[in-house]
Amino acid sequence: MNELSDGTFHIFQKLHELAQNLWWSWQPEIRGIFRELDPDIWRLAHHNPVALLQRVGPEEIARRVQDLEMQTRINQAHRRLQQYLLGSDSWGTTHAGPILAFPVAYFSAEFGLHQSLPIYSGGLGVLAGDHLKSMSDLGVPVVGVGLLYHQGYVHQLIDENGWQQDLYEPIAAAELPVEPVLGADGAQVRFPVELPERAVYVRLWRVGVGRSRLILLDARDDANSPEDQELTARLYGGDQETRIQQEILLGVGGFRALRHVGIKPSVLHLNEGHSAFALLERARELVEQEGFDPQGALREVAATSVFTTHTPVDAGHDRFRPDLAGPHLEPLARGLGLPLKEVLLLGSERPDDISAPFCPTVLALKLTRRTNAVSALHGRVSRKMWHGLYPSRTEEEVPIGHITNGIHVRTWLSTDMHNLFLQYLGPRWLESISRPDLWSRAEKMPDAEIWEVHQVLKARLITFVRRRLADRLERLGLPAPEREALDPEALTLGFARRFATYKRADLLFQDLDRLDRLINDPHRPVQIIYAGKAHPRDTGGKALAQRVANIERDPRFHGKIVFVENYSMHVGRQLVEGVDVWLNTPRRPLEACGTSGEKCILNGVLNCSILDGWWAEGYDGGNGFAVGTGEIHGNPDVQDARDALALFEVLEQEVVPLYYDRDASGLPRGWIQRIKRAMRTLAWRYNADRMVMDYVKECYLPAAGGETCRMPAS
Predict the structure, then answer these.
(1) Mind listing the pLDDT tens digit for each residue in 448-470?
(2) Are 203 and 127 contacting, i.e. CB atoms less than 8 angstroms apart?
(3) CA 64 from chain center: how many Å?
(4) What is the 8-class DSSP label of residue 253?
(5) What's the rounded Cα separation, in Å, for the pair 288 and 582?
(6) Which residue from 41, 119, 321, 635 has the least number of CB within 10 angstroms?
């Protein structure tokens, strides 16, 4: 190899290693390196460095590195990654105990780590991704277990009628930050999982998430039929039979995958009920390999497992007919040495009814000793929902506690705001984000600097949205508008989340005349940016998305209410950084947590929300805005009407006046004081580091020690 080729190889190798570990996704300096190599391809590749390196090529990369004088930056970034991976001085070193020797296995049907790995649909997956990232930062060993969906989740295109069209595109593994798990023979690890009348082979892939690991199962194996290869094609796709088979692959196959990569977990943590079959597989292993009797195996599994429930809606929990569940559970029952009927009863809400459906959530509740909801209010809702499983206890005694979700700060914090925090909170502020005393320093940040940074972020958001709108018009063959959408000076509200009907994205549309007056006030204008996808089979959610998308066409709201199609982590990040106010309007108490609002806190964005999920415990009267007082009406239509009135009132009487109340220098002093109060009172609580610390102390360490008591109900 000549000198140039040798230098090219080393630079490209370092860039490849950086691209293959998703640590780069929460390191803005490294993202900047990839972006500068080719801004156009970076954008076309959805900010995917693996795809960028493939499309540009080693020789061209080397030339651009030389032209841009980037070699020192690349070397420093690579050295930082190695130091991070090998670092032994962490919170986990002191506090994680036996988990340091035997990691937590964290099962989830979806992981939202970055838009370049589209194996997520919404908040559940993003929470799982943030969990792995904070476990990595804190130095608490964890192995995530999921499925590699080779068509990902649905891409959303809005047609000329405003209707959501669902597009699925194959994802080339070569352009993903995944690597095959290789066995001793050098071949990719593969093994069978029993399904009715056949075995389905799965292949294993590895993803680096900082110091955390993620193992993904893929059914694209030549030994499988075309139909079985499609089992890992789409997230939440297909009928009930496809659904239960995906959950068998995730739970049973996922636990077997741990053995194949040489991992003996101390704790199983199930993120929602989709992976509950892992509990039965672990019990089967104890019976077949460790000599446990069936009931002893189930008790051991329960003592060392943790279950987090996210769904406060009864219909949101899978339920499978006994004639469908039975054949899928039969191999597990046989391995456990139990009659199939007894195994089916483990997932039944009505043990005296043999025709009752099998519910994986019920299985998880019965076979874990530590169960938690994801906010205080959600804990109360969950205890009420599952009270029937504990007939001898009062509702308050139902053993479901809560650990309120938090967000991975470095993933969701803008670079501009991070730089401001470095100046006023100190160079190592990220290491202390869960300490309340750190955030008292936020009061010392100059109002003018906070406002200046926010205005920069807002301008960037508006540019992004305008570009997205132009792309949609071009795709539909429609002319560009006479004037550009959105006014940088107007109060800007943001609403972005999964389009489910209970989230009520159209709550303000109940009175369009009043909305017209709010939006088009000549002295105090308001504008709204919406984004969100509906599940492909959720026609109600699609109708809601259509109503929101089509409001753009009303001449009263043209250019002032806009809809950004194809919601993703990237779109969400732009909104939580740049809007002035984050709207959240679920029908209480159906929002389990609502972490999107938590992502706004450190970006200088105020929450305006129904008192549901995390906001019900976070709002203190001065750190944001509340819609209503937490009242619930038995008639949903009455509740919606009341909440719509309350939303208009808080916007008209509190939000708009405070935003436009400026001093002689043009600063909204009262608004900025509320931003500082939000940082001081909320930032230390609603972050994923605090969340992970709670899981370690309240769940993982007791489970790793095999304690049989449940986490106390809260």
Answers:
(1) 999 999 999 999 999 999 999 99
(2) no
(3) 35
(4) I
(5) 53
(6) 635
